[in-house]
Specification:
This protein is of the alpha/beta class. It has 2 domains: 166 residues, HUPs (Rossmann fold, 3-Layer(aba) Sandwich); 122 residues, Alpha-Beta Complex (Glutamyl-tRNA Synthetase, domain 3), CATH 3.90.800. Helix content is 35%, strand content 13%. The chain is built from 10 helices and 10 strands. The strands form 4 sheets. It has a 3-stranded parallel β-sheet with strand order 1-2-3, covered by helices on one side. The protein is elongated. The protein starts with 6 loop residues before the first strand and ends in a 12-residue tail after the last helix.
């Protein structure tokens, strides 16, 4: 299948070299683009400079090149795109979807504790709404997206409802109405963003851009039609759908692939000391790619060269996933 409209991307954060988990995501996004006859891009997500060691972006690009996962256009860096994020934030501010927040994490924890909320490890801290109706004399430090206001008012327009369905008591306009979307790997998904996350950050107190805003702006500006990434990021999708609707952007299709786990069930990650994939020899390159393919449910095959192996996995991917490209469709009832 050839689709000139298909554009995918791999968007690593240069906080460390590629490891087994991030390589699975890279290979999956590359295979999906190749199976569709589309374009594959690489975007370096370096909007948090303190976490990005110097030269790590080039190391990731070196690893990808050694594995013959080469983008179809020069890579782009988020650190060069601050103006686009500022424009998007201004648009949200003008439309009333963003408001300043002076809460520290300690403030949030105290407010949530007063509400009887028990924080789970690795779970979200839903914003308690302290600054939603004003700063009360405090100085604003960050900007948040007004999730409840959006879900309560904007979904009527987002869902293209008629005037009768846009009544204030229509179920689509109730705040506890979860967002629904279709994931190409995980199937039907839903989340009540207001309850699960609350009003999420768009720009941090230190002036750095939040991931949610940056990735939505970047995907739209680069014309990304399909986002293929690890399942640990599936939880971010509803926030990104809300932002896309608020900014008048088309939602890409989403596919969240299985994670590489450690023996204790934790996700393999740079923060937990995941070793870099070794790509210095043909044997190493074939080994790490075969392992990644197996995590994606693909047969290792008997190919002796990287091009042959990648071609075989592309054919397998096309047979398994090419028909599973239903549009996300954004938030639906």
């Amino acid at each position: 299948m050839t689709s000139s409209a298909y554009t995918g991307r791999f968007a690593p954060s240069p906080t460390g070299p590629l490891h087994a988990g991030s390589l699975v995501a890279a290979l999956a996004s590359w295979l999906d683009a190749r199976a569709h006859g589309g374009t594959w891009l690489v975007r370096i997500e370096d909007i948090d400079p303190p976490r990005c060691p110097q030269g790590m972006d080039q190391e990731i690009l070196r690893q990808l090149h050694a594995l013959q996962l080469v983008p179809d256009a020069p890579p782009q860096w988020q650190s060069a795109r601050h103006g686009l994020y500022a424009q998007a934030l201004a648009q949200l501010q003008d439309a009333g979807w963003a408001y300043p927040c002076a809460c520290t994490r300690r403030d949030m924890d105290a407010a949530l504790a007063a509400q009887g909320y028990l924080h789970e490890r690795h779970g979200e801290r839903p914003y308690p709404g302290t600054c939603r109706d004003g700063l009360h004399g405090k100085t604003g430090r960050s900007w948040r997206f007004h999730t409840q206001r959006y879900q309560h008012h904007a979904l009527a327009e987002a869902a293209d409802l008629d005037q009768e369905a846009a009544r204030p008591d229509h179920p689509l306009l109730q705040r506890d109405q979860p967002l629904h979307w279709q994931d190409r790997w995980l199937g039907p998904m839903q989340q009540d963003v207001a309850a699960h996350v609350g009003d999420f950050v768009l720009q941090r107190a230190d002036g750095l851009w939040a991931y949610q805003l940056a990735v939505v702006v970047d995907d739209a500006e680069q014309g990304i039609s399909d986002v293929v990434r690890g399942a640990d990021l599936a939880d971010n999708t509803p926030r990104q759908l809300l932002l896309q609707q608020a900014l008048g952007l088309t939602a890409p299709r989403y596919m969240h692939t299985p994670l590489v786990l450690q023996a204790n069930g934790e996700k393999l990650s740079k923060g937990l000391g995941a070793p870099a994939v070794m790509v210095d020899s043909t044997e190493q390159r074939m080994g790490v790619l075969r392992q990644s393919a197996q995590y994606l449910g693909l047969e290792a095959g008997n190919a002796s060269t990287l091009p042959d192996a990648l071609a075989g996995w592309t054919a397998q991917w096309a047979r398994r996933h090419l028909g599973n490209t239903a549009a996300t469709g954004g938030p639906v009832p």
